[in-house]
Amino acid sequence: MGKRVSSFKKRTVTRWVLSYLFATLIPLVMVLIASIVTIYMNSSSMTYSNQITSSYAQSSFQDVMDKINEIKAEIVVDDDFDLVRPSKDLSEFTSLELYYRTSSIRRLEQSSSIIDHLFLFSPRYDWFISGENWGSISYIDFGSPRLSNALGDFKNLEAWGVGSEIWDVYMYDVSDNKILILLPMTYARSTNQNDLCVGAVVSKTDIFPSDIDENHDVIIYSERRDCVVYSQSGNVPVGVRSESLAPLLPGTTTNLNGFMASVGENMTLGLKCIVMMDRSLYFHNYYLLIELLGAVIFVTLAFGVLFASRIAKRDWVHYSNAAKASGVDLANVPSGANTYAPFVSSVQDLKVQQAELSDVISRQNASIIESSVKKLLDGDVSVTKESLEALGFSLVSDAFYVVIASSTSTDVGQYLQSKDPSALRIPFDSEYGKSFIVNTKVIDESQYVDTFMNLQKEGILDSFSVSLLHYGLESIRDCFIEAISVHEYQKDHDIPFLSYSALASTTRQNAYQFTLEENMMLQKAIKEGDAERAKAVMNKVIDRNRENGVSPKTLRFLLFSISGTIIRTINSLDDRFSEAVPEMNFPPILQSQNFQKSLAGVEEIIDSSCYSIAAVQAQYSDSTSETYQIYREVLGYIHENCSNPMMNVSSVADHFDISIAYLSRIFKKYHGINISEYITSYRLDKAKELLADGKMLNDVVNECGFGSLRTFMRVFKSVEGITPGQYKTSVTKEN
Q1: Alpha-carbon 259 to chain mean position
Q2: In the chain, how long is the greatest CA-to-CA distance?
Q3: In 3D, which of 531, 672, 532, 540 has the Cα closest to residue 608?
Q4: Short-list 61, 366, 362, 411, CA closest to 205
Q5: What sections of 283-382 are H helices per DSSP?
Q6: Residue 469, SS3?
Q7: pLDDT of res. 160
Q8: Pairwise CA distance, residues 89 & 94, whole Å
Q9: Beta 424-430 vs 271-278: how paired, if at all?
Q10: 562 three-class SS
């Protein structure tokens, strides 16, 4: 018989141990398998993503190169530059001739928003002409000393392996976000000893996609020279042939020594745009996870059997004790191969589970009670007598009042309970001290007042603020506001004990005074943008009414009236202020629980509004001048002709027969931004309106003057961060 029991125990404990191990290992194994599958799926996804990134980078790079080639073509066919090409020294020109060519270069430079700086230079004869100045190459700066250093090094032609002629594209980093692109006037080898080149400084964000992170590298490879022209990270040597990159074909993706290399499909001047991604860095976290899971599984197998055996033996003791207590004879348990004894918790385990469940229920009840009290204080009528009774609060009457009290020597709740044992008290947290909603059977007003007079005589409490007696759950909000008003009045006048009925008899006025003269003074200060004077007028009115005995509740109505004056004053101003003054969000003054916070909120709005008004007044102080009239006419011209893709800063200046520099200076003075930025911004705003109305992309491109869908997509994505199609979809869902 003993062997039978021993055999049953062995089988049961063994199965418990296996169940514990499986319960621990199966989730880990599933996570390990999921990680391996995720790596495989992400590898395919990242290959496709890298191909898309490469095509996008190639497209962006081609846009920039096409624009530079367009400008170079204009220089080639422009008669103004005929004298420049064969020149060996700038001394061959007069200053007037150089200034004239400088102006022509500046015009070409400003015709494109992509190019920051444009210049012609001859590295062989050490001279340059830009849109700003001319002279030796060492004088070139454009805010980047690295630019002049790069051009100075380029004078040593042999060092770059180009022999005695310049016949390809060169690229250099001249700052953290700027790139210098050098193009020869011709790509064909010739006997021209001048080697005249075009230099253009452009932003990196215009060439390379902004979503390329530190795990990627963009490489420009020249098939004409069979070498690397540019490496965004600087990790790939420039000017030398790469045995691994040279054979790559456009539109392909290849793994190269732990890197994923994708080549764009389009070709520009024999240049390949290659995007390389470090696979090991990208999948580093997955590899660490697999290694960690493998180590955890090994440790679990090594030590899990020992721990599971000890736990199973302890559980067997509980099981056998529970079996004996319930009258089960383990000796008669069948010994079939498939017999399995279910686990029976001991009485102690059940007690622990019951205690944990009770704790969870208590926390949930506390959260529900807190939410119900907040609704009552906010005047929410959704809280009913039945819902309070479900939470354990059985109302004793329809009479309510709110108490705010403090004491350093006794528990406030217990003390108040001893004075009115039949009352129901619901405590809640507030910033003023111990607070209670009291539901009392005392409905006689005189008896209610006498109770609080006795509290003052006993001197147990340090401070005591109480509202009037109100009736109905919906009146608790009024009780709370009255208690707060009493508490604030006590702080201002150093009165420890006070009821709202006593406060009403103490204050001499129930109406505030806000004279017409004070109203006009406040309006005048706001219109002039004088925040300090406006706040001084407001505080003087409030202080005078407080000194005259106006109740705290009435002071809230006074602050509400002052806020109305501020709103009406700002709304009455000229239209130009409506765009400059920030949106006013006054605090809910009548519902606010703290008068000083409401007052500070109104003062903050006065500060921000007056600051904006003063700034606009200063900006428009010369609105009758000739320059302001030009600004207004230019603004109207831009609005009327934004659908014309040929409209740019140069065409606007030509229309008004003024220089580009003069036009830019006037526009920025009155509008605060560059005119080119405004044209782009206005077109984008109009495009978003048309997209929201359901217009097709091609129609939006034509009506907003973007010229091509590709340009529209690029500009929209760079400014808004999403594509036009994504924007249209999101707006449609919102509508």
Answers
A1: 33
A2: 123
A3: 531
A4: 61
A5: 284-325, 347-377
A6: coil
A7: 43
A8: 11
A9: unpaired
A10: helix
Three-class SS of residue 303? helix
Residue 728 confidence (pLDDT): 81
Q: What is the pLDDT of residue 286?
A: 63
Pick the closest to residue 512 from 488, 483, 548 (CA basis). 548
Strand spans (E) along 468-562: 470-471, 497-499
AA letter at 434: K
How far from each other are the two terminal CA atoms of the chain, in whole angstroms? 79
State the Cα angle at 636 between 634 and 642, rounded to 5°: 95
> Could you count the other beta carbons within 10 Å of the beta carbon of residue 432?
20
Find the length of the chain.
735
Nearest-angstrom CA–CA distance, 245 and 223: 10
Do residues 200 and 181 lie in contact, with contact meaning Cβ atoms separated by under 8 Å? Answer: yes
Q: In which residue are the tokens 């250093």 written? A: 149
Gap between the Cα atoms of 480 and 426, Å rounded: 13
Pairing of strands 424-430, 433-440: antiparallel
The angle at the Cα of 425, spanning 421 to 431, to the nearest 5 degrees, equals: 135
Please state the φ and ψ torsions of residue 55, each to the nearest 5 degrees. -65, -40
> Cβ distance 217 to 53 under 8 Å?
no
Residue 130 belongs to what H/E stretch? strand 127-130
Whether 122 and 85 have beta carbons less than 8 Å apart is answered as: no
pLDDT at residue number 637? 92
Contacts of residues 678-681 at CB distance under 8 Å and 24 or more positions apart, as own/partner, are: 678/638, 679/638, 679/642, 679/647, 679/648, 679/649, 680/113, 680/715, 680/719
Query: Which mean pLDDT values do the consecutive 10-residue runs of the chain (735 residues) have?
Result: 57 71 71 71 71 79 84 76 73 80 84 84 79 78 64 52 58 82 72 70 78 75 83 82 83 80 75 80 64 72 69 71 63 50 45 63 75 80 82 84 87 83 84 84 68 75 85 84 80 78 65 76 83 88 82 76 78 55 51 70 82 67 72 88 90 90 84 84 88 86 89 87 81 60
DSSP H or E segment with residue 662: helix 660-671
Identify whether the C-beta of residue 465 lies closer than 8 Å to the C-beta of residue 405: yes
By the 8 A CB rule, do 451 and 442 touch? Answer: yes
**Rounded Cα gap, residues 377 and 80, in angstroms:** 81
- Burial (CB < 10 A; 0-12, 13-18, 19+), residue 640, is exposed
- The DSSP element (H or E) to which 197 belongs, if any, is strand 197-203
Name the residue type at position 538: M
pLDDT of residue 586: 54
pTM: 0.37
DSSP result, 508-527: SBSS----HHHHHHHHHHHH
Distance CA 373, CA 379 (A): 10
Reference 531, options 603, 621, 616; nearest CA is 603
Report in angstroms the alpha-carbon separations of 153 from 88, 126, 147, 150, 160. 19, 11, 10, 5, 9
